[in-house]
Amino acid sequence: MAKRTFPSSRLPSSSSARCSRRLVDSPSSSAGPRENGAMETDDWALLNELVQKDHVILTPSQAHDDFYVIDYAVKYDGFIVTNDMFRDHVSNKRSFHGKRLTSTWVRSHCIDFTFVGKEFMPNPRAMERVFNFQPSTMEPLPSAAPTITPVQKTLSSSENDVGDADDDAGDDGMTVDHAGTKRSKTIDLSEVTYYKVPRGLLPMLHGEDGQTMEKFQEFTGTYIVLPSHAALEAPSPRQLSNVLTLSIYGPEASRQQAVGHLDAFLLQMQEQYAIQQRQQQYMPSQQQQQSTASNGNMAAQDDQMMEIDPY
């Protein structure tokens, strides 16, 4: 039932508690040994005992436990026992405590494992990091430069490349996102809506120095992750998609409000684009007509000149 495991300096020093602190999915209040065949009576007693001792932290039922697990590990500079490399969260530039998650941090803080029969076997090389673990001072890092990265990936494409956000990683593998830190701490990040927009509209969404998007988030009560301005201008050897994906976090009502405004904005942009296209088509046609008329006048003048007898 346990999802992830962290060593932490906040744990008791006893040998039984020294090795781990676990986050697990919270069972429903009515669930019990008879309703869940996977949990025996002794298992429930052990789970309740670990919860009471603060060795196990329950996550809300049906919640995205990844957010709680990563948040806890970043907060206490701990390790995560998991075979999940969190590729979706890395590619979507999730931020935890003001630092953006990177694959470098994942590789250095996650311990993969397997089972041989009933014996739990974590990666021995990863366990060396645990035994030699020294908590960091958690000093604030300098503000990170925008990352030149291709199109944002959605959860469906999370098995693709891992290293998109490594270039601007700090010493601890995380990058600081000061602009969204305050908002991301006050907005629930467990629910997200993905919204696709044409790549060409990215500068309009950012506005001047990001002020347009900043005000839009304040107005709708959401936290929105979108590609940086550099994603539009970055040279790439491969053909980039014309569509970018925004990640909209917040309560359902706020996300619906944001989507409604974005729908109206896109419709307005499409209408303006259609008008510009018609104008561009009209101007060459008008120039061609003027050119044809001018050529006709010159031909008439030539005919008249040919009729003149100088003698």
TrEMBL record:
Segments of this protein annotated with the region Disordered: 1-37, 152-179, 278-311
InterPro entries: KH_dom_type_1_sf, RNase_Zc3h12_NYN
Xref: Pfam families: RNase_Zc3h12a (PF11977)
Keywords assigned by UniProt, alphabetized: RNA-binding
Biased composition (Acidic residues): 161-171
Keyword Chloroplast included in the entry's annotation: no
The RNase NYN domain, residue ranges: 40-124
Bias type Low complexity, positions: 8-18, 278-290
GO molecular function term, any single one: RNA binding
Domain of life: Eukaryota
Protein name: RNase NYN domain-containing protein
Organism of this sequence: Phytophthora ramorum (Sudden oak death agent)
The organism's taxonomic lineage, starting at the top: Eukaryota, Sar, Stramenopiles, Oomycota, Peronosporomycetes
